[in-house]
Design goal:
Number of domains: 2
Shape: globular
Structural class: alpha/beta
Oligomer: single chain
Strand order of the largest sheet: 9-10-11-12-14-13
Distance between the termini: 37 Å
Number of strands: 14
């Protein structure tokens, strides 16, 4: 399968960061397009060197990293899967300080900034971080390649979304999950059992969009609640899980205070649940939570400057997603229905929180108001001004 290069929304920001920082780290899950983006941006430069830390010959080139950088002084260097060589960070600091040239070094990694903590300690003030996600709906819309049903079912990983059919996409995603649990996790945390991680991911898929309870999950998996929390933190830091915190609000209601957890890519969610096509998805109990997670991920990935949370009281009054920025607060309810309806609890929550701007996002054709404060719309039409 060959897919032409499609522009990514992060391109301009990567170039901007390369003008500001000597080192730019582009982070995100494996196979989301980091290497492709890097090669597109600087691959046309004859001085460009790309090193992959999973390729033994490239690892050997950095056996003496100071000598390597000395020999290649003045050339642009991209180091892929940098989380496998954290010992390079102190050397990079010396290289940068000896010859401070912005944009010279590009690091690619499938572990978060927290897992690359050494970089923030040794390269403080010298490195800028950006996160690349799998293809977002807005990116596919921009190039007229967006099919919302395929994107929802298959997810946004390029090699999953652009397969010839759903069956081939499912095979790709199964291999992605196997590689993740059998190779990627042991590289980061060798003591963790791949079988336990697979079981944990499957359990998280069954609990998509639910309030996280480490004790209950631990009992189901035969693991301690501390182990479950460690698994959650690790997989979140490898960009496959998202935690949505509860809103901290000064209201006279008893609020749910635990986060909700979502598998970020809907395609991986469906593979873990063995959902092969849209008909299987439409008949599956996870349907509503799958759509909720899909919509939520598209909105949050495309609007990282907004603070996100959910609101739920002990008596069930709830808002799926609240976005806050400055003095503006927006309430979003997510419904997997072409005739979406919300109960009185949604309007009670708007009143409790003093929110005057609400949306119901559903797979509908057109947008329409349901009252002066709430609009029904589809994901494609929803935009934050």
């Amino acid at each position: 399968m060959t897919v032409e290069y499609l522009p990514r929304s992060l391109e301009k920001q990567v170039e901007q960061y390369r003008q500001i920082f000597p080192v730019v780290a582009l982070l995100g899950p494996r196979q989301c397009g980091k290497s492709t983006l890097a090669k597109k941006l600087i691959g046309g430069d004859p001085s460009f060197i790309h090193l992959d830390m999973e390729r033994p010959s490239d690892v050997q080139k950095l056996a003496d990293p100071e000598l390597f950088f000395q020999v290649n002084q003045g050339r642009n260097i991209c180091i892929d899967e940098i989380q496998l060589r954290p010992n390079l960070f102190p050397v990079l600091r010396t290289i940068v300080d000896d010859n401070r040239v912005n944009g010279r070094i590009l690091l690619l990694g499938s572990a978060s900034r927290d897992l690359l903590q050494q970089s923030s300690e040794t390269l403080a003030g010298r490195i800028g971080y950006l996160e690349l996600t799998p293809f977002m709906s807005s990116e596919l819309i921009e190039v007229n390649r967006y099919d919302w049903q395929s994107h929802w079912l298959r997810g946004g990983f390029p090699d999953s979304y652009f397969q010839s059919d759903d069956a081939a996409s499912s095979v790709w995603r199964e291999n992605f999950i196997r590689t993740f649990v059998e190779r990627d996790i042991p590289q980061i945390s060798p003591a963790i059992s791949p079988q336990n991680i697979r079981r944990f991911l499957t359990m998280m898929a069954h609990n998509q969009g639910q309030v996280f309870n480490s004790t209950t999950l631990g009992a189901s998996l035969g693991l301690s609640h501390n182990t479950v929390r460690n698994y959650l933190d690790l997989i979140q830091q490898m960009f496959l899980l998202r935690m949505l915190p509860p809103l901290e609000a000064n209201v006279k209601k008893r609020l749910i205070k635990s986060p909700k957890v979502y598998l970020r890519d809907s395609g991986l969610l469906h593979r873990l649940l063995e959902i092969e096509d849209m008909n299987a998805l439409l008949g599956h109990p996870v349907l509503g939570f799958s759509w909720e997670g899909y919509v939520l991920e598209q909105i949050l990935s495309q609007n990282p400057s907004w603070t996100s949370s959910f609101y739920r009281t002990s008596n069930g009054t709830e808002i799926d997603l609240i976005l806050s920025k400055g003095n503006r607060r927006i309430a979003i309810e997510i419904k997997a229905s072409t005739s979406p309806k919300v109960g009185p609890g949604f309007y009670h929550a708007l009143e409790d929180l003093g929110i005057s701007e609400g949306f119901i996002i559903a797979p509908v054709q057109d947008s329409y108001p349901v009252n002066k404060n709430v609009t029904v719309t589809n994901l494609r039409s929803f935009q934050l001004a």
